[in-house]
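Structure first, sequence second, as always.
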């Protein structure tokens, strides 16, 4: 296992392949295995994956996390991997982190692929989830999270796969998961992202109930100049539901992106 340090927080990451550097950032509630199904389709890239703080094999410090902290975690991983700049593909919280990284350290980002994500979320709903998890654990929200993660037909037709995801979710440190949820609750990206000047690609799931394109992805498109959009027939965790189509969309974008 490979680890990086950001202050006293230890971060687990892994590297696969060779070629153009591509950093993959997962959603809250999911470790780096989120990307397992797309990896066979990314053979032309040097792929860096990481468990965000609070997830997988990374540390789970108590308290609220911020997007600035998680973006700094990503920089710590890039530093250890000796990567100056990478294309960054982030899903949900990972996309919010990717936008933050492009704002805070634009020299470390060559292009952005923002999947099933948003620059704004309902803070009241997220605060309620945080309180439930801190009081009663992740099991108290597991069913609701799975319903937001996957489309109804995917949950029906791939019950074994979704059950495995649920089992991993139940192993999360409640404090780590709640900390990641706080980063979403407290984000303030809507008024800032027009400053992003990187080639940007937005991927939206046609059946995404967590961050539907209207009200979420379209708000990114309106604010980042030249942002392209691709709709996929999937729920929120599109790389799991349609891995080949997801990887093809990212690969096609990056092959044509004029990197800054």
């Amino acid at each position: 296992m490979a680890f990086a340090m950001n202050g006293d927080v230890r971060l687990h990451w892994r590297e696969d392949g060779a070629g153009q550097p591509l950093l993959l950032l997962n959603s809250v509630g999911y470790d780096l295995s989120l990307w397992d199904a797309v990896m066979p389709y990314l053979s032309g890239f040097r792929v860096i994956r990481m468990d965000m703080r609070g997830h997988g094999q990374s540390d789970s410090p108590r308290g609220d996390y911020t997007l600035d902290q998680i973006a700094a975690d990503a920089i710590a991983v890039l530093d250890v991997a000796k990567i100056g700049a990478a294309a960054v593909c982030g899903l949900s919280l990972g996309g919010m982190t990717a936008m933050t990284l492009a704002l805070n350290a634009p020299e470390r980002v060559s292009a952005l692929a923002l999947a099933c994500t948003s620059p704004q979320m309902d803070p009241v709903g997220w605060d309620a989830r945080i309180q439930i998890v801190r009081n009663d654990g992740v099991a108290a929200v597991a069913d609701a999270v799975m319903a937001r993660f996957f489309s109804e037909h995917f949950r029906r037709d791939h019950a074994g796969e979704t059950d495995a995801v649920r089992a991993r979710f139940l192993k999360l440190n409640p404090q780590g998961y709640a900390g990641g949820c706080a980063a979403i609750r407290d984000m303030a990206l809507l008024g800032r992202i027009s400053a992003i000047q990187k080639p940007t690609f937005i991927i939206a799931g046609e059946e995404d109930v967590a961050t539907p394109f209207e009200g979420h992805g379209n708000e990114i498109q309106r604010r980042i100049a030249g942002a392209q959009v691709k709709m996929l027939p999937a729920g929120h965790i599109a790389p799991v539901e349609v891995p080949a189509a997801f990887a093809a969309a990212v690969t096609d974008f990056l092959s044509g992106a004029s990197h800054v």
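Margin note: DSSP finds ten helices and eight strands in the chain.
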